[in-house]
What we know:
This protein has helices at residues 15-25, 43-51, 59-67, 73-76. With 79 residues, the chain is mostly helical.
Amino acid sequence: xxxxxxxxxAGSPGVTTAAFAFGVHWPRPVIVFEAETSNxxxxxxxxxxxxxxxxxxxLDKVAVAYSRxxxxxxxxxxx
Length: 79
């Protein structure tokens, strides 16, 4: 397992883009975690939103099910 950390000072352009580019083109499964607390970016959400199949699920569907008290543990486990 590899761990890559991209850091910058607040407001430095390009770090999210670089991390995102590495994540998209990395040859193995990747988790890209953006921990920017002062400025929320929507580039990752926009990218994945346009590339998910309609039946692929997603956190928005989990949030809706949770808000309607319709979420069970079976919904969170992939058999």
